[in-house]
Amino acid sequence: ISDIITVIAPVNIAVIKYWGKRDEDLILPLNDSVSATLDTNVMCAKTSVCARQDLIEDEIWLNKEKVPFSNRLQNCLKEIKARAASENSVDPIFLHLKIRACSENNFPTAAGLASSAAGYACFVFALAKLYKVKSDISSIARLGSGSACRSVYGGFVRWHAGSKPDGSDSVATQIADASHWPEMRALILVVGDKKKETSSTGGMAVSVKTSELMRHRVEYCVPQRTELIVDAIKNKDFPKFAEITMKDSNQFHAICLDSYPPFVYMNDISHSIVGLIHKYNEISGKVKVAYTFDAGSNACLYLLEEDVSEVISLIKHVYPPSNSKGFVTGLSYVEDVNSKILKMFQPKDKDLIKYVIYTKVGDGPSEVTDG
Ligand code: DP6
């Protein structure tokens, strides 16, 4: 009856973190957040959807396994159908059919690699295509996972917390598209791909209830930082962008420790990466690299293209891989070892960093035709 729609959607990594909800059902955040959307050529979620007369219930398959069609998925589907009905975009009969969705990621799930953001953005974008919804879908992606609303757009994106109880003003908007700052790069240092212990949803609920530092961040720090980082992005001011990014990541992880009972996402290797980046920036005489950590131990480094080869050399020197071939996936790069700098850093044990993903800022979701 219907055609199959296949779309891909990007991962996004926040530089001003979303942490804490004012409404857990509608997934409304306490604070604005800002992120960069990463290139779908390197990391993406891919989802196919169709509506079928012969289906007795809505189905979702994740990495080739049938999984329960959760409340969050139901909420997204319900909202897309309501939007399609109000836009009169498809024959009402079509809205009564059950759907099948098949989704996969080309990167590890639940390792703090923002897989849920790409996954829900992909699911909702695919449904919007299926039901021919034309209006902004970021508030629908938000119902799947808060951070997913930012993966609906490419480039640099701001999720406005909004203030309305129904969440209608809690939407993502683009600050600048992917071509605005073409030199911006990201290196994801995969420290471990074990499933994380405290989910973001669970962790932020504990923080909202117990952390005083969180209140200070939401009321005082985030509003200032958000304005400053939006300006830094618009003016392509890397040192300012980097400083705010690092401070906000550190404060988010401080909130995790300030929560009661406390929980941690960063491990010893994560902390050693923080130390390394500060030392490197210091001896470089300028801030060349920013780190940020989500709800996991992996580091995401933001840096400019001109510094990539030096930083990759540094990482390989300090965290030597036993298999150097294949250590860095993503786009190609030239290695340029600055031996004076390398001499200042002591190598650590082998394989503390499992692999590195090299990527850049990219576009939002798109339909693919190859299925
Ligand atoms: C640390 O979007 O995964 O990555 O809305 O409960 O699904 P839910 O949480 P989720 O939280 C992401 C938290 C973060 C910071 C961020 O991406 O802004």
Automatic annotation (TrEMBL):
Pfam families: MDD_C (PF18376), MVD-like_N (PF22700). It catalyses: (R)-5-diphosphomevalonate + ATP = isopentenyl diphosphate + ADP + phosphate + CO2. Keywords: ATP-binding, Cholesterol biosynthesis, Cholesterol metabolism, Lipid biosynthesis, Lipid metabolism, Lyase, Nucleotide-binding, Steroid biosynthesis, Steroid metabolism, Sterol biosynthesis, Sterol metabolism. GO terms for biological process: cholesterol biosynthetic process; isopentenyl diphosphate biosynthetic process, mevalonate pathway. It comes from the Eukaryota. Catalyzes the ATP dependent decarboxylation of (R)-5-diphosphomevalonate to form isopentenyl diphosphate (IPP). Functions in the mevalonate (MVA) pathway leading to isopentenyl diphosphate (IPP), a key precursor for the biosynthesis of isoprenoids and sterol synthesis. This is Diphosphomevalonate decarboxylase. It comes from Arctia plantaginis (Wood tiger moth).
